Amino acid sequence: MSTDSPIEPCTCVALRRATRALTASYDAALRPAGLRVTQFSILRRLERLGPTPLTRLAVEAVLERTTMARNLDPLERRGLVKIESGQDARERVVSLTDIGREAVAAATPYWQAAQARINAQVDPKAVAALADALIAAS
């Protein structure tokens, strides 16, 4: 069956493409600091929260617990975070190390430059409104 009307663009595909481009832009900006935007985000979140159970950190970052654990592995190997047992032996508590704090401080100017560059192209209020609308619809 054929129609003469154009195919409507898929919103999901368009947003995924935009997200990939945005991530690549932040990753490129943070490259001199040796971090990816996902790693920087986790380190900043830990800086704000302090020592945090892995499960809560995953919830805060809107990630699955297993995904968060995979993201923490390279950060722990580099000495940027420390993962220890909590009060319950099954609980894992993640802390930012001094080296991790230094990494956040070193990376922040690169992140700020990327943020300013992107905000000059896309109105942050429009992004927030789109995010709110999509969350409300789900």
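(the above was protein one; protein two follows)
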Amino acid sequence: MAKLLSEKDATAIKDYFSQQLVNPVTLRLFLQDPSEPGECMYCSETEQIAQEVVDLSDKLNLVVHKATTEDKAKEYNVQYFPALVLEKEEGTDTGVRFYGIPSGYEFGVLIEDLADLSSGKIKLTADVIQQVESVQKDVTIKVFVTPT
């Protein structure tokens, strides 16, 4: 199977990870069970890109779930497939979800999210952090993107 990441991109990401990753991060991938009816668009490609990214650092771990054969999808409140759930360490859900394949601009966001979670550093200004900390109720933020 052909690689999705070019050698040049893989080398650049590997170098970035070697500088930025501090603590382990787990990518928990939820796929539709292939024995179930209907096609899971981009499930195989999402699994491939997740594996290629994880292969670039020993601080990254990939756990794959076939959604209909495990209750983990319900436990993590995964609603669509494919889904990537990012964990600071295996079992510690950060609430970050990627539904669909993280390609295009979303791929860069995935790489940055992995670095941010691993380092524990927040790349926001003090006033933005203060505004976020002042929120007194649970909030769900959903960002929808389309291919360009």
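Reviewer note on protein two: The chain has one domain: 7-123.
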